[in-house]
Amino acid sequence: MVKKLIFPIQHWLLSQGKCVGCARSLDRQQTREKKGNILVYCKCGRIYLKEGQKYRRALFEEI
Question: Where are the domains positioned within the chain?
Answer without folding.
Answer: 2-62
